[in-house]
Amino acid sequence: MKRCRLRDLGITVGRLSPGPNNAITDVRGVRVGYVTRCKDKPHVVRTGVTVVWPQRDIFSSAVFAGAHSFNGFGEMTGTLWLAEQGLLSSPVAITSTACVGVVRDALCSYAVNSRASDPTMMTVVSETDDTWLSASETFPLTRDMVFEALENAAAGRIAEGNVGGGTGAVCHEFKGGTGTASRVVRAAGARRTVGALVQANFGLRGQFTITGVPVGRAIGYDEIASAYDEPRDAGSLVVLLATDAPLIGKQCERMARRAALGMALVGSKGANGSGDLFLCFSSHNRVPRGRAIHPVEMMDPESMTPLFEAAVEATEEAILNAVTMAETMRGREGRIAHALPLDRVADIVAAHRVQVKSR
Question: Which residue in 2, 47, 61, 134 has a CA-CA distance of 20 to 30 Å to 187?
């Protein structure tokens, strides 16, 4: 079966409606860019970088943001200052563990070359480890590749699966990758959008769940081999949430925490060796440089619950889209991460629904 998104299989997550693209780019102004690097010589490389622009003028006009570390076996640069100030003033990038340094340097260099900032800016770069499939010890990304991802960023429909930083990812022992989704809700008397973009590189097959159905347990290793020599509960999940709701930094942090619930619904328990790092930003308020006083709108905390639900659902579906869109990949040392068999998924979920209705 051709790779497709979860909804194309007739499977829906939650009860809320998605935005027009069912993507993080449904939040106005958000753009996503990728560079994907796959080569076999002289080393097998399966990696890349994903860049998310919160707004086009982010270097000169910050947005409120907050981050949360559910399990800290990973890296997300710039978050100490983010926690201190509650503002994000750069694009956010996700890449391979080994390439965090060059990506961080490239973001700073891009800002300086654009005369939009100075070298002391605290850029945000996160990562997952793609060493199982990619020779990450060769440090395969360059600054120019990051510049390319920044320049080719676009709104609308975006690629998923084996793209960008998620190129070499493994999720629940199937091929993982990059995924996205969105939700539209009414909160504080207005229509609000919440979008998620994930880099999914975590989880055990036996815990893999789709809309409450234990799909992973139904697909045996004799049917589809594990990506690993033996099952391992390690890896990482990076989640970026975006919203147009009027939130300040602390409220964005509260939103970021809800990504853990979306992860749990897919089947992760937050293993010791998993770096589960989440960030949320709001595009509603702008904080331009050079002003002493900024007018700010803030949603009443009592009105935030619909946004929390949207964050959970968007995260859950984004993870599942990453897996359903990812194709089988052969990596270093002949290792193979098999794609999730979509025909089997459709049959397993349909059979479960019949069982539930017959009770």
Answer: 61
